[in-house]
Amino acid sequence: MARARQSLWLWAAALAVYAFLYLPLAVVVIFSFNDSLLNAEWVGFTTRWYGTLFDDTEMLNAAANSLFIAIAAASVATVLGTMAGMAMQRWRTGFLRCLPVLVLTPVAMPELLLGVSLLLFFRQVLDLTLGLISILIAHITFSIGFVAIIVRTRLAGMDESIFEAARDLGASPWQTFRRVTLPLLLPGILAGFLMSFTLSIDDFVITVFVAGVGVTTLPLQIYSMIKVAVSPEVNAVSTLLMALTLTLIALASKLAPDTLQSRT
Amino acid sequence: MKVLRVHIATVLLALLTTLTHAENVLYLYIWNTYLSDDTVQRFEAQCRCRLKQDFYSDNEEMLAKLEAGAIGYDLIVPTGNAVETLLRKNALRSLDKSKLPNLKNIKTGFRDPWYDPGMNYAVPYATTVTLLGYNATRLAELGLPTDSWALIFEPRYLEKLKGKVTVLNSQRELMAAAMKYLGHSVQESDPARWDEAKRLILRAKPYWATFSNSTYIKDLAIGNIWVAHGYSSDMFRAQQDAQEAKRPFAIGFRTPKEGAVLAVDSFVLHKSGRRPDLAHQFIDFMLEGTNAADVSSLIGAGNPNAAAMPYIPPEIAGNPGIFPPPDDLRRLEMLRDFDPKTRRLLSRMWTEIKVR
Amino acid sequence: MNKWLVSLPPTLFLVVFFLAPALLMVGASFQQPGDFGGLVPAMQDGQLTLSLETYRFFFGDWIYAEIFGRSFLVAAATTLICLLLAYPLALLIARSGQRHRNLLVLLVILPLASNFLIRIYAWIILLGPADLLYTPFAVIAGMVYVHLPFMVLPLYNNLEQHDPALLEAAQDLGAGIWTRFWRITLPLSLPGIWAGSALVFIPVLGMFAIPELLGGTRDLLIGNLIKEQFLDNRDWPLGSTLSLLLTAAVLALAGLSARAGRPRQGNA
User: Fold this and answer.
1) Which residues of A touch C114 (CB under 8 A)?
2) CA-CA distance, C220 to C226, in Å (whole number)?
3) Contact between residue B353 and residue B202 where contact means Cβ atoms under 8 Å apart
4) What whole-number distance in Å separates Cα of residue B326 and Cα of residue B330?
5) How far apart (Å, rounded) are the C-alpha atoms in residues A225 and A229?
6) Of A142, A149, A69, which Cα lies nearest the Cα of A110?
7) From CA B83, how far away is CA B178, in angstroms rounded?
8) Taking CB atoms and an 8 Å cutoff, what residues of chain C touch B224?
9) Could you give the C-alpha distances from A15 to B230, B310, C101, in angstroms and in order?
10) B12: pLDDT confidence band, cut at 50, 70 and 90?
11) What is the CA B87 to chain-centroid distance, rounded?
12) Which pLDDT score is estimated for C140?
């Protein structure tokens, strides 16, 4: 229910917080047009850094890797996460009572711990060469929980009577799933995919531990650029990345508006 | 749904196979800003292959990453003590000298390093000194000395530099600087002496801005930091950057008179690399006088290659921070790795230094 | 049959790639550091090489406890500041009309669209000239900035469910605006506060990029220490031990917050 008028101070306070959220990002975007190599102070306007970006093979490589990993990881995570979400919602007896813990703990843990334990696992047990596969597995692991939460929330919000009606009409469980559950679930599944995609493309902490030879992702590339080089190229790639993820999140919010309300 | 899954699987498989080491690629694990783009392009044109670089800014970081499973690098550029570690781990391929005709260009003084006498595993590439880089204009204004470690350890100087000093985020390097200032060897492992060093560091720490292995390059060039403890080649780069950006000050760097750490970085072939042929080709390419000169002219590092000297501009060849004169050389030491017990103790002390 | 088909794949995946590594970490904390780094195998020449040495090393002095303590302090400060900043925002969103509400929520989430490192980089740009870089202020600012949206969402989710009738009734009974907030809104929003706090506190504990890029010489947190063990010191047992203890702390906190966040009976 809406209140007739919000107190002025509430508006002012909220506005101040919004400003706090956006000012730094605005600075990043604005300085991506700075005509100065060191980007220490504003010199002049130029768009050349966006041009240098497209000549930078390291960057393009990293972007390609990030994109590929994000799509692959999100795909697998969405499938597994959807399954997990359904299982968590439907079956809560027996050993499956532990499923929520198993699925949600990776979400609750600081990413650092996931990265470290996976590193240990890959090296000590699998003796796996770090590289694309290790990053993929790591990203899938932490994404499953997010998808599961979204799917479970969506399932919980569904009216049970629909499923009963389908069963009464003689549909087998598989048919019910394919023709009733799945279509209803689809926005949630897609939102989960987009969420996993965003998480993967954005991930830094876990990737730092499990990335191997010759496979850089965009965040890792940005990290090394922040530490060593400092040209506005960093700002340029940041701005582009922001635009991309912004589009995706807007998409996700259109598809499943209720799923963005709560992450717990 | 099932069709979609199969579809995705095929796409994944296809992409995976194309993305794995399929083409003519040489994987190089090297220090930040230690190989100029020019040189890379020339090599890529000559070998008709691609050179992929990954970077590190500390030997420890490199060794840790290798230990953590970074497999597949053809070439690495470790410092002497790291070469020793890698040799003890049996991680290196021996060199096929028949493929390295230009090996003869290496100066006599560099042919029998303690970690690899006879150059069977390592080919020297560059030398750097860990020294102090500084904003010459600022320091002249403040009347501060630029030739001693006291600049970063003595409160009477640090008072004027509060928040404008960075030191290396490296256990060995920072301890080495402290040891040199106190008049001891960088290999010192006597707990009493370590304690002395620790107290020296902790006394100076409140004045330091942060520990940094690489951000100091840009911080110096921009002018946020006035004194940095770092590698001579990085200081050279900061100097160049500041000039190019027409900053209203000049960056200088000098080896402190008490002595410092000398690092000789060499190319080694890691056993997990898949293209030792390309690796040898690259090394031989880099041993040619004209190419070897790049590491001094463009990067500002010292050069172990005699054939390179004629191609190096005199102002670089004469820079004592880059090519230490015999006087300085006497006071320079190379780091040697400690055993695990000592390493753990040092690491514990390092944690204490970071926390206090 | 259906049940197993659906629940087995994700379970298997997580057991192999989450549970097993976690157990491995437990084991690694009992192993010895290898000569060149890494771990000495648990069984060597038929002998068990496990030992409590790493734990002894850890509990041997206060320094590690100090770092843990400091990390908790930073996390607490960040959480508190996030709460103070998020509350007005969440209140506004919860009390807005439907069409405004979605827009406002989106505006909160959008900063998350930028890469986490970019958000840190923004502060490097802002604080550099102000001489505030490499200070504790910078670290807290960075932490708050990165985690603020995570506090807003659960809080707003909770506030949205409050029955305005309660507040109207209180107003009719003569309660002023502050009393209404303090005695009705705030207590009812506690589950949201707990949920939001957990979403901020726990990730902050594991952060290392922010102290590394923004922090000064005294701002080393437990995340940095753990990272250093694996990516610099090559002391894997110590790293595992520290990780284990951090995990224990986090699980305890998560459990606590789940318990506190459970909605009480008869809520509006």
Assistant:
1) 25, 28, 238, 241-242, 245
2) 10
3) yes
4) 6
5) 5
6) A142
7) 24
8) 128-129, 133
9) 44, 65, 14
10) low
11) 19
12) 94
Q: Do the Cβ atoms of B71 and A132 come within 8 Å?
A: no
CB–CB contact A109 C86 (8 Å): no
pLDDT of A79 > 80? The answer is yes
Residues in C closer than 8 angstroms to B61, CB to CB, are: 231-232
B344 contact residues in C (CB cutoff 8 A): 33, 57, 235, 238
| Tally of residues, chain C | 268
Cα–Cα distance measured from residue B259 to residue B185, given in angstroms and rounded to the nearest whole number = 10
What is the spatial distance between Cα B294 and Cα B316, in angstroms, rounded to a whole number? 11
**One-letter-per-residue 3-state SS of chain B:** CHHHHHHHHHHHHHHHHHHCCCCCEEEEEEECCCCCHHHHHHHHHHHCCEEEEEEECCHHHHHHHHHCCCCCCCEECCEHHHHHHHHHCCCEECCCHHHCHHHHHECHHHCCCCCCCCCCCEEEEEEEEEEEEEEHHHHHHHCCCCCCCHHHHCHHHHHHHCCCEEECCCHHHHHHHHHHHHCCCCCCCCHHHHHHHHHHHHHHHHHCCEECCCHHHHHHHHCCCCEEEEEHHHHHHHHHHHHHCCCCCCEEEECCCCCEEEEEEEEEEECCCCCHHHHHHHHHHHHCHHHHHHHHHCCCCECCEHHHHHHCCHHHHCCCCCCCCHHHHHHEECCCCCCHHHHHHHHHHHHHHHHC
ipTM: 0.80
B touches which chains (3+ CB pairs under 8 A)?
A, C
* B85–C67 C-beta distance less than 8 A: no
| CA distance to partner chain C, nearest, from residue B195 (Å) | 16
Q: Give the model's pLDDT for residue B53.
A: 87
Query: Within an 8 Å CB–CB cutoff, is residue B57 touching chain C?
Result: no
How high is the pLDDT of residue B103? 92
Q: Which amino acid is at B354?
A: K
CB contacts of A229 in chain B (<8 Å) are: 218
Q: Is the pLDDT of residue C155 over 90?
A: no
pLDDT at A35 over 90: no
Distance CA C90, CA C107 (A): 12
pLDDT tens readout for residues C188-230? 888 888 888 888 998 899 889 999 889 888 888 999 988 888 8
Nearest CA in chain C to A247: C113
What residue type is assigned to position C165 of the chain? Answer: A
Q: Give how far Cα B70 sits from Cα of A128, A134, B61, Å.
A: 10, 11, 12
Q: Of C199, C205, C202, nearest to C68 (Cα)?
A: C205
d(CA A147, CA A78) in angstroms, rounded, equals 6
